[in-house]
TrEMBL record:
It comes from Leishmania lindenbergi. This is JAB1/MPN/MOV34 metalloenzyme domain-containing protein. It comes from the Eukaryota.
Length: 335
């Protein structure tokens, strides 16, 4: 049932940061232009709280996006906060004319700009807006977090010699199955090389060169994204506070897998897999049917690779849920 769920460990005692080294040394976080591949992402207590707080408004059809704020020290990424992207909800009303609806949207955007200015000013005063190191996505398993827009923002961070961390959180898997689902990724060096090669070509020539570029960059071997283990930072002060809390007992996995909520969730997940596989099939069929295609392999585009990765994650998740359902059904039958 928990296949694909990451293990969230608590960080060990952290050594004090050598401020002089990080400030003056060429390999410090201030002057370094070539960062090491992160080995671990440490989520601070405020960052976890902010992530969970922002997830309250997420639904199966509404996803939450934002920036990850922190710092990379050598091969360790310290996440100190997450900053949500402001958004507005446009509700369709049949009684409104198009002009009335657009006027309401303009007024809402004006109010949103005022709130955003206040929010930005607060971050500017604390110098938090200068430490963006990635993007976060809060969504269900139905949504593909590896979107083109998100990957483009990670590329922009990389071009500015900043860490490019993608943090994903699934509140639905967490709530239904009772185990936190937080994962972190960073684009591979092969993907950056592949993207720089592909960006020089256009149209038909770009299509025929994809296989060559994929082989030259090694992206088909290394993949587009590299997953990084996530740890939660809990210091002595947090431990002291947690001692006074009465945690809710872990839910019964048997009751969870037999619940109507999980049944509906599995049905929605299956529908999403069907839609994604149809989309993937159409994309591959289109590439394969291009005239003068020759023997160029299909599926060499990074967007297609990310979609295949998402479908694979979805099918692994659904397979684990089905295995659990069969296991409990067989146990009940034997009893």
């Amino acid at each position: 049932m928990y296949a694909g769920f990451p293990r969230l460990n608590v960080t060990e005692a952290q050594e004090a940061v050598d401020l002089d080294f990080e400030l003056a040394n060429e390999k410090g976080c201030v002057k370094a232009t070539e960062l090491l591949v992160p080995k671990v992402v440490n989520l601070s207590f405020p960052a976890v709280c902010a992530l969970l707080y922002n997830a309250r408004t997420a639904t199966s059809s509404r996803n939450i996006f934002g920036s990850v704020i922190g710092l990379q020290l050598q091969d360790v990424v310290e996440v100190t906060d997450v900053k949500i992207n402001p958004s507005i909800d446009i509700e369709e009303d049949d009684r409104m004319t198009e002009e009335e609806r657009m006027e309401r949207v303009r007024k809402e955007r004006k109010l949103l700009d005022v709130d955003k200015a206040i929010f930005e000013n607060m971050y500017n005063q604390e110098n938090l807006d200068t430490n963006v190191i990635g993007q976060f996505v809060i969504s269900s398993a139905r949504f593909n977090p590896f979107s083109t827009r998100t990957m483009r923002k990670l590329q922009e961070l990389h071009r500015e010699s900043l860490p490019a961390i993608l943090l994903t959180y699934d509140p639905f898997r967490t709530g239904l199955l009772g185990r936190p689902h937080i994962r972190a990724y960073t684009p591979t060096a092969a993907y950056y090389k592949y993207d720089s090669l592909v960006s020089t070509e256009r149209g038909y020539q770009r299509r025929r060169s994809l296989a060559q570029y994929a082989k030259e960059s090694g992206v088909t071997k290394e993949g587009v994204l590299h997953e990084i283990p996530v740890k939660l930072e809990v210091d002595a002060f947090h431990r002291l506070n947690l001692m006074n809390l009465q945690p809710t007992s872990i839910g019964d996995s048997f009751k969870a897998i037999q619940s109507m909520a999980v049944s509906n969730y599995m049905e929605a997940l299956l529908s999403s897999i069907r839609n994604n596989t149809d989309q993937l099939k159409q994309k591959l069929d289109y590439e394969g049917n291009i005239k003068d295609n020759g023997n160029v392999p299909v599926g060499q585009d990074a967007e297609t690779m990310l979609l295949m990765k998402h479908v694979r994650d979805q099918t692994d998740h659904l397979d684990a849920l089905c295995d659990s359902t069969l296991l409990y059904s067989s146990m009940l039958r034997d009893l």
